[in-house]
Design a protein that fits this description.
Blueprint lengths: L5 H18 L6 E5 L2 H12 L6 E4 L8 H4 L18 E9 L3 H13 L4 E9 L11 E5 L6 E6 L5 E6 L4
Parallel strand pairs: 1-2, 1-3, 3-4, 4-5
Antiparallel strand pairs: 6-7
Helix pairs in contact: 1-2
Length: 169
């Protein structure tokens, strides 16, 4: 299987997101990228939409449900939201949706800042391996991988996808 080129997916995603926002009558969405790949995808989407709106960044390390099992990521960064969350229409962007646990952690963190009016989920890839009932509103492409395979987004410029095979236990 050949991995898609993110640069080829982003214009279609931007157009689909624009239609989604118009359908839901959302005029001033606030973009939030999940650290690290989600921030890169959100930056690319904002550029494709011709928007210069500020971008929020979330590091969900403290909100992960495997925090106590696997420990903290060695490079935890503070989240930065340059706008109010309360009552805002948010566009939450991640690079790869696999189990849904990262998105759940991001939602938990966002709600600590306030109660948004809505959250639109955008993902570059959906690996169709969800463990939680979380589904993107806009997705670049859906892939099915072998249980020992993962996909990692490399970036920020150019964005590229890399297939990784987990070492046997």
């Amino acid at each position: 299987m050949t991995l898609p080129d993110p640069a080829a997916l982003l214009p279609r995603m931007a157009a689909e997101l624009k239609r989604h926002l118009q359908t839901h009558r959302i005029d001033t969405p606030r973009f939030v990228g999940i650290h690290t790949g989600g921030v890169w995808v959100a930056q690319a989407l904002l550029a494709a939409l011709g928007s210069e709106e500020p971008l929020g960044m979330l590091d969900v390390s403290f909100y992960r449900d495997d925090f106590t099992q696997s420990g903290l990521h060695p490079q935890v960064r503070p989240s930065a939201l340059p706008f109010e969350v309360e009552g805002q229409h948010l566009v939450l962007v991640d690079d790869v949706l696999m189990t849904g646990r990262t998105v759940r952690a991001a939602l938990n963190e966002l709600f600590d800042y306030g109660r948004p009016a809505s959250v639109t989920l955008v993902c570059l890839l959906d690996l169709d391996a969800r463990e939680l009932p979380i589904r993107p509103d806009v997705v670049g492409q859906t892939l099915s991988l072998a249980p020992d395979e993962r996909v990692k987004l490399l970036g920020p410029a150019p964005l590229a996808l890399e297939r990784q095979v987990l070492a046997p236990l």
